[in-house]
């Protein structure tokens, strides 16, 4: 009875703080004013559904309504939390894509040092089509982009489609019906592929990644050497072009 009394008092305080009448709150709960009055006066218990709806109405946690505990972390986007879709949950995510609140509370995370925004999600990478840029198990920070045509050429994107989740690099070719996608993995048999724009549920730009893999020093050094070689080849090409131009002018 003491717990019921405390709940009733908290509900009455919350209602008055928000300037609501009993009839308005009762209407939100789809019950009569008389039934709600009995809850506030601690004469009747309160249903779970009503507790959840009241927590949304007053923007407090259900724990506060039940126990009076205020100092709990609210897990939602307004508090910096981003939902994580693990690789094993990709199929379920696509199946429930058009349903709201399809994430379990345990699948929301707050990333230190990262400024979250609305319409962001975390996706776990599966497969090696984007190796070495992305490795299987990496977690991507993705931002919704409603207008595909606004995405810059060469950007890393994540596409949610009926057939699966694709992580590729976009290549703009001014095609109004299809989107051209490229894999970073040179060993991929299908380096370039096209996807119909009408088949895309959602397009997201990759803003960053979280990786549990640290490349060995010799791999980093090798990549640095390859980059230097590529730069040297580009320089030689430029010099040959200039030399060829001079030879052409001499023949005139």
TrEMBL record:
Molecular function GO terms recorded: DNA binding; serine-type endopeptidase activity
Keyword Transcription regulation appears in the UniProt entry: yes
GO cellular component, one term: membrane
Record keywords, A-Z: DNA-binding, Hydrolase, Protease, Transcription, Transcription regulation
Domain of life of the source: Bacteria
The protein's name in its UniProt record: Helix-turn-helix domain-containing protein
Stored InterPro entries: Cro/C1-type_HTH, Lambda_DNA-bd_dom_sf, LexA/Signal_pep-like_sf, Pept_S26A_signal_pept_1_Ser-AS, Peptidase_S24_S26A/B/C
PROSITE patterns documented for this protein: HTH_CROC1, SPASE_I_1
Domain HTH cro/C1-type: 11-65
Pfam families named among the record's database cross-references: HTH_3, Peptidase_S24
GO terms of biological process kind: proteolysis
Keyword Glycoprotein: no
